[in-house]
Amino acid sequence: MNNNFLRLLGMLVIRCSERPRYITELFGAMMNKRISILIVIACLMGSSVAHADCDASSCSNVTLTVLYIDDNNAYIQTSGNQSNLSCTQTGTLLTVPGTSPNFKLIYATLLSAKLQNLPVSTIRLNPSITTCTVAYVILR
Questions:
Q1: CA gap 41, 48 in Å, rounded
Q2: Looking at the whole model, is its pTM more than 0.70?
Q3: Which listed residue, of 28, 54, 71, 140, carries a Cα 20 to 30 Å from 78's Cα?
Q4: Whole-angstrom Cα distance, residue 41 to residue 52?
């Protein structure tokens, strides 16, 4: 049973690797069970890494590079590729309108993320407005 377990782990390692020959030569028939488990865990963790980017109506897993506020609104810029957004930006900034009923909550969430250098899971834009106006944000 121990050999079957090692063969199964070896097959998983080979599937995760871009260099299967290197892995099989490195571990061969004497594959250590602990190392095998660590490699499998590393493969699984690597596949769940989220990348920062923006699509037509939202930005995901981004950090805030700019958080700017004036008399009426707050403005943000993210680490995502905001040129993918289908709305019109204020320069390179997304707008959080001061007239929004959730302005204080959205601003507090964004300020918290900026101060702690946390990624924002989702910045969703309002699809019914042509300018890039933030509808809600999600931190995880």
A1: 11
A2: no
A3: 71
A4: 23
